[in-house]
Amino acid sequence: MEVRSEGFQVMYDKLHAPVIPRSRFRFWFIRVCSSIVLWTCLVQLVTVSELWNSHFFTGLTSHIYHTTHTPIQDDVRLTESPPARNYTSNGFLRVSCNGGLNQMRAAICDMVTVARLLNLTLVVPELDKKSFWADHSGFEKIFDVKHFIDSLQDEVRIVKRVPKKFSRKGGFSTMAMPPVSWSNEKYYLEQILPLFAKHKVVHFNKTDARLANNGLPIDLQKLRCRVNYQALKFTPQIENLGQKLIQILHERGPFVALHLRYEMDMLAFSGCTLGCTNEEAEDLKRMRYAFPSWREKEIVSEEKRSQGLCPLTPEETALVMQALGFDRETQIYIAAGEIYGGERRLAPMRAAFPNIVRKEALLAVNELQQFQNHSSQMAALDFMVSVASDTFIPTYDGNMAKLVEGHRRYSGFKKSVLLDRKKLVQLIDMHQNRTLPWNEFTDAVRQAHEKRMGQPSYRRVIADKPKEEDYFYANPHECLCEETKCDDLLGPRNSRQVR
Q: Is Membrane among this UniProt entry's keywords (predicted)?
């Protein structure tokens, strides 16, 4: 019994031992953990609040490489996504954009506008992968898809793909067709809309210049601008590197973005061979014949040049820039692909303007590596730099030149020297033939371009000749002023003559 009594006593003592230390440890442990959780929550709330106030969710890329210059694709009006528009969709519109980056960009703006007009659901556009540029980048590799969809949801419903129930297995057939070029709203309402009642899915397999420049309602014109200047935002990777490139250039001083369109594809397409060797001219001719879509085969280069239909050569460009007053200290950014003839053709220009730079020289190899062999992504970088430059000079009025011109007008009518090539080649030939002295040559060049600096003006309208009139995206004047004040900004003194 004593043993049992001692055992019970030991058990009793253990059970009734003082518990103050363990309770105190447990109390402090709980208190410390609670404090950590509370402080963590507080920090998270403060951080989220700060990020929200700085529009983090919609403006992250514009803050990474911040400069004193306004990013070309930021817009405070889109810091929050608008509410979705409710409407009964008449069908799905698929589009395959053709051409280079800027030709496709304009087409996307047009197709959003067509979808809005016809109450359609737009499928995220497919980009050209078969043309000369052979860039396999999809929409999502160049543009911010989420931003594109969200920022336009109050205008048009956009989806990433056609629902499976509208496939062939579901009993539906997709109608593929190119819409008629330069068409107005009447064509789309009367000719295109009825097609959706039968097919539900219509595929536009060509989209370049399928919407008229003029004669459209003001709300449709403004929607084209909204897509172009606000909804089509480049991916964060492109935006970040583009802003870094712009920052580097501005730190070095003012700069000219020169769209020197003297690339192999441009020369082959146009048939312009001034300054090329006989072997180079033959190579260009073979390339032109190799592409069925480049219809003109027999081209007389001298005739096209005299008509102002050839891009200026590097030698001609250097002469014109000197006449316009640019000196040897001018920083010139070449916004173009590889110049045909390489450094041999650039040598005269480098002699006149030693401070010529390209993105390949300003950025590290590893920074550009992800964009190599993707011509549209590389063109996006040049596009950003061109819009942000102090002066923009295109040597040919292609799609990039026109869209950059329009962006610069939208950004406050930044200086864009729009070269009159037909007049220039006459002056250049006269000067080189020594019939026009240098001082008279410079006076004539400057006088010819006094009103070609991107000033406010109305678009030139030519009835029944849409290809010859001013392109909407080069001068979207409906988007540049309130309609009641347009005459004050774009009045007769600024306007080019309407024919």
A: yes
Q: At which residue do the structure tokens 């329009």 appear? A: 406
Sequence-distant (≥ 6) Cβ neighbours of residue 112 within 8 angstroms: 122, 152, 155, 156, 158, 223, 224, 227, 231
Please state, in angstroms and as integers, the Cα–Cα distance from residue 286 to each residue in 280, 281, 290, 337, 338, following that order: 10, 9, 6, 20, 19
What is the extent of the structural domain holding 312?
Answer: 236-490
241 and 110 together in one domain: no
* pLDDT for position 169: 72
* C-alpha closest to that of 81 among 142, 155, 140: 155
Residue 148 clears pLDDT 50, i.e. is over it:
yes
Both structure tokens of 325: 């007053």
202 pairs with which residues across the strands? 93, 175
Q: Which of these three, 198, 231, 264, is where a domain ends?
A: 231
Question: In terms of domains, do 399 and 439 share one?
Answer: yes
Strands (E), 103-186: 121-123, 157-159, 175-177
pLDDT at 493: 45
Domain end (from 212, 231, 250): 231
Report the C-alpha gap between 357 and 255 in whole angstroms.
Answer: 10
pLDDT surpasses 70 at 49: no
